[in-house]
Amino acid sequence: MKGKARHKKVFGLKELLQHSRECRASDPRDKIYAFLGLADQGYSIIPKYTWENTIVHVLIHTAHRIITFEGNLDILEHVSEGREKLGTLLPSWVPDKANVVILKWTSNDSKMFSQKFHRLVNATRLRDGNKKPFQASKEEIGAPGFVRDEFNDSNLDLKTFLTPSGLRVHTSQVAAYDDEVWVLYGARKPVILRLEQGKRYSFLSEALVCGYDSLISDIMFGSMVDMVRNNEAKVQEITIV
C-alpha cells in the first residue's frame, strides 16, 4: 500500500506579517501569534497572553527572534517610517505601529515610501542597465547583539542628498543633513542612521546610492566591503536603538 508523504510548507515570518497588515484583531497580539503556525518553528516564539506582555513587548520580541533566527538584517526593509501610537515606545529597528483596532506590521506611510523607493530603484536600474541584485555587504554575515534599554523596555516621501565625495543618495524625507550613510554587515542595501549619543544610532531608512552621473554606485554591490578587506576602510561596532 502506497502512501503520500505530507509536507507542510513553512514561510518567513516577516513576509507573513507584512501580508497580514490589513487584517483585524480584537487583541493586537493576535496579529503576530495567529501566523506562527505557518512560520518556521525555528523562530521560537511562544504566544503569551499575560497582561504585562503588551503589544510593544510582543513586537520587540518578534523582531529580536526574526533577526536571531534568520541571521541577517533584512527586517530593516520592513521597518515603518511613519509611526504613530507606538512610535516613541519601539526601538527604531522594530516594525511597526498599532492603533486602537488594527496593528500594521507595515504602515500605510511605510508602504508609500516603499512603493516610491522601489519605483526609483527600477527606473535607475533601467537607465543604468545593471541587473545584478543589490548586496552592499556582500557575503559578510552580521553578528547583531541585543542590549536592554535602560530607559524604556518596551508625510513620507523621497529625498536626495549629495555627499562630500559627490555621491547622490536617495532616501526618505525623515533623513536630515547630519545623518549618515552606513553599510551594515547582513543588510542588502545601505541604510541611513542618525547618531544619538556615543556609538548609539537610530535607523531611519534604506538608501539608494548613485554616482555623480546618476548611475548606481558600486557601493550597492559591495565595494565598501572590498575597501575594508583592502584596509582602505574600517569596520565599526555600533548600537542601533
Largest sheet: 4 strands, mixed
Helical content band: 10-25%
SS summary, helix count: 5
Strand content: 5-15%
Radius of gyration: 19 Å
Oligomeric nature of the chains:
single chain
Instruction: Give the helices and strands as they follow along the chain.
Output: HHHEEHEEEEEEHE
What does this structure look like?
By secondary structure, the protein is α+β, with helices and mostly antiparallel strands. It folds into two domains: 13-104, no CATH class; 108-240, no CATH class. The chain is 23% helix and 15% strand. The chain has five helices and nine strands, in the order H-H-H-E-E-H-E-E-E-E-E-E-H-E. The strands form three sheets. It has a four-stranded mixed beta sheet with strand order 5-6-7-9, with no helix packed on it. Strands 3-4-8 form a three-stranded antiparallel beta sheet. The longest helix is centred in the middle third of the chain and has 21 residues, at 108-128. The protein is globular, with a radius of gyration of 19 Å. It starts with 12 loop residues before the first helix and ends with a strand. Mean pLDDT is 79; it is low at 1-5, 97-106 and 150-156.
